[in-house]
Specification:
The chain has three domains: 156 residues, no CATH class; 54 residues, no CATH class; 40 residues, no CATH class. The longest helix has 18 residues. α1 runs antiparallel to α2 and α1 crosses α6. The protein is an alpha+beta fold and 300 residues long. The two termini are 28 Å apart. It is globular and about 70 Å long. The protein is built from 14 helices and nine strands. β8 and β9 form a beta hairpin.
Length: 300
């Protein structure tokens, strides 16, 4: 009988949570937190924990598998499509789900990393991470942790009731360096890199060291982010089917764009092209962007 099973039998939720946290950290998680399934009332109906698993009580969140220092130095962001996918952190979450079911004796479902109808996630990992105290949303949407910055998240919904964590009292975004830059220049590193008034995606105003207004052009950002994978396949196929010229149609089918799209959908599974430029300049975890700077972080 495992420690998790023994503790569960004694009905000590705090001890069970501690053992699951240890398991997550040993598996490479940089952050671990628990949110109550009841706290997702602001999520759209059909996209709450109970819609994935009836009787849901808790949502466990783990984060990690962040890009390495060298990844941020590369001018070719496309290499991060494969080297920094969320596969590893999702696999870790699956191991936690197995422990909850096989050893603790409760139901557990890992939130699928893909999207449902209308490009909506089955459950917002960003919301789950915020509620579990694993970080706060940045101007562009990704959840940032005050120490670890950008990372990939995974979550599992379970009928096991566990002590819950609280959202961060101080959001990671804007960082103190961003507030200072805004006071001096009227922009932050990310809004200066991708200014919404000059064809970019980001804008906003800071008051009292907090964002008082946020501007994020999601449609424009997605058009630049999803250049491969499923959306690109759909776009290229629509153009191919409408192209009357046979030679041009053949050229489109054999193009590097279409070839790379097929490669990303098959060999790389969930591969997505992301520009990362707003996160590349983010100062939240600037110290880990250099060799030796991440020495104190757990390996993922």
């Amino acid at each position: 009988m495992s420690d998790v099973q023994k503790t569960s039998g004694d009905r000590d939720p705090t001890a069970v949570k501690s053992l699951l946290r240890d398991m997550a950290e040993k598996g490479g998680a940089l952050v671990f937190g628990v949110a109550s399934a009841d706290d997702f009332a602001m999520a759209p109906e059909g996209y709450r924990p109970g819609d994935i698993l009836p009787g849901a009580r808790s949502v466990l969140v783990v984060g990690g598998a962040k890009p390495r220092a060298g990844d941020w130095q590369s001018p070719n962001y496309q290499h991060m499509e494969l080297s920094s996918t969320n596969d590893r952190i999702t696999a870790l979450c699956m191991r936690l789900a197995h422990s909850v079911e096989r050893e603790a004796g409760y139901y557990a479902v890992v939130v699928p990393p893909g999207v449902d109808e209308g490009q909506r996630p089955f459950l917002s990992l960003a919301l789950a991470a915020e509620l579990a105290g694993c970080g706060s949303r940045s101007l562009a949407g990704p959840v940032l942790h005050p120490r670890h910055g950008f990372m990939y998240f995974a979550a599992l919904v379970t009928t096991l009731a566990l002590p819950c964590d609280q959202p961060l009292a101080q959001p990671a975004c804007p960082a103190p360096a961003c507030v200072k830059m805004y006071k001096e220049q009227g922009a932050t590193p990310c809004t200066a890199t991708c200014p919404i008034d000059s064809g970019g995606c980001l804008g906003g105003h800071i008051e009292n060291d907090r964002w008082s207004e946020r501007q994020y052009d999601r449609a424009r950002c997605m058009a630049r982010v999803y250049n491969y994978w499923g959306p690109a396949f759909q776009k290229v196929m629509a153009e191919v089917l409408q192209e009357p010229d046979i030679e041009r149609r053949q050229m489109m089918i054999n193009s590097s764009l279409f070839t790379r799209t097929l490669w990303s959908m098959t060999y790389a599974n969930i591969n997505q092209g992301q520009c990362f430029e707003c996160i590349r300049v983010c100062p939240v975890d600037e110290q880990t962007r250099h060799p030796g700077g991440a020495r104190n972080e757990k390996e993922d």
